[in-house]
Design goal:
Mean pLDDT: 89
Largest sheet: 5 strands, parallel
Oligomer: single chain
Number of strands: 5
Distance between the termini: 35 Å
Strand content: 15-25%
Number of helices: 7
Order of helices and strands: EHEHEHEHEHHH
Length: about 170
């Protein structure tokens, strides 16, 4: 498994689910998680988080949320990612990035980069298929007309759709 994961895109639900999956893969509830909520973390804070061992033994996950990779300061922070402690995995949830930047190219070479795209307004059939798949994955059935109606009510917002699907399943 990669030590560094860069997650970005408009589909917040899919990013959240990928982060949950990474936590589960690394050890679930017993995993030591350190979270940094900042568009540009301080170098000392980031270095400390990446180089320190887990307090309770086992693997450690460092999650950096709201990272704005367009900020020039990120070029200086890249050196910290070259010295990650053994057993430490890093997940960066980027709120903004520029694919042409040196920072993005560095992550493309050294990390697992995942983009999570939201459905476009005109994509009705893929959204209806997504709704149906989510319902079926929970052991339930939904008629195509009901899935279509749910999409009409909620639009293509996956967070809202998942919330309504959860209510229907309950």
């Amino acid at each position: 498994m990669a030590k560094i994961h860069l997650l970005f895109g408009e589909a917040e639900l899919l990013i959240k689910e990928r982060l949950t999956q990474l936590k589960r893969d690394l050890g679930g509830e017993a995993l030591n998680v350190e979270q940094i909520d900042s568009p540009r973390p301080e170098l000392e804070t980031l270095t400390s988080a990446l180089q320190s061992q887990s307090l309770f033994g086992g693997d450690k996950l460092v999650v950096i949320k709201y990272a704005d990779l367009r900020l020039k300061d990120w070029e200086q922070l890249l050196t910290a990612f070259e010295q990650i402690a053994p057993g430490t995995t890093v997940v960066i949830q980027a709120s903004n990035l520029d694919r042409r930047s040196r920072v993005f190219r560095w992550f493309s070479e050294h990390a697992e980069v995942s983009e999570f795209k939201a459905f476009s307004e005109w994509e009705l059939e893929p959204v209806i298929a997504w709704i149906t798949n989510r319902v079926v994955a929970n052991g339930k059935k939904i008629e195509n007309s009901a899935a279509r109606r749910l999409q009409e009510i909620c639009g293509n917002d996956l967070l809202k759709l998942q919330s309504e699907i959860d209510k229907l399943i309950t």
